[in-house]
Amino acid sequence: MKRLAAIDIGTNSIHMVVADVEPVLASFTIVAAEKETVRLGERCARTGDLSEVAMGRSLSALKRFWGMCQALRVAEVVAVATSATREAANGRWFIERVAAETGITVELISGTEEARRIYLGVLSAVDFGGQPHIVLDIGGGSTELVLGDGRDPAYLSSTKIGAVRLTDEFVRADPMGSADFERLRQYVVGMLERPTDELRTLLGGKPPRLIGTSGTVEAVAGLVGLQATGFTPETLQGYEVSRGAVEQAVRLLRRSTSSERTQWVGERRAEIVLAGAGVLEGGPGVV
To answer: Which CATH architecture has domain 2-109?
Structure first.
């Protein structure tokens, strides 16, 4: 058995999972899981580079995670950086700073590779039963769509729309006006037109199941549960919601103020959940 840590440096947050892996049995046991919202995607308005403040927040989180790895006697750390880092001109310099200041070696992965790894993560928790599934992951800077039936993925895509990116571009008022939200939704539909057309062709009329991952999907699913029962579900893994229920939750978010959203999904998620919900409503609707 080997103790590993996996770190995902995203646009909105940094995640770490520490697990004991049994390679012979192809199984693992989670030892610890950590997440810190760092907003690495908040760039310098003048240069478009990762800002010093955002990199500082990220480095602080990574130093804390590195300390946990040492305390837990982790044998190997696997770390990747995604949308915000790969798009910024100073992204590679940031990765060098991470190595120098924390000792963590970070791999910069492409959008397609990010989609592939998301799919593998879903497969570790969900049995597709040989049936076609579309995996939708709404990140801070990009959205991934994957088609698969439990075997090798049939389709992988990554599009430059995410909850942080769209919040910066479209969310100007609180609450957000209907016309502004519709512009956001139409932008999402347009950006996802090519991958969804390609998915339709591959599916050939077969109805797929949709699996959503990421903080936006969890937040909206939790709100659906809250509306239905008065309580947020204790666990959201495997939680099933109808498209109608998602649309109702998104309508509620559209009419809500920041303080109301904070009560439902927490302060940090409240800042970006409306834009993420626009992807959730606009993306799968064209599949």
So the answer is: 2-Layer Sandwich (3.30)
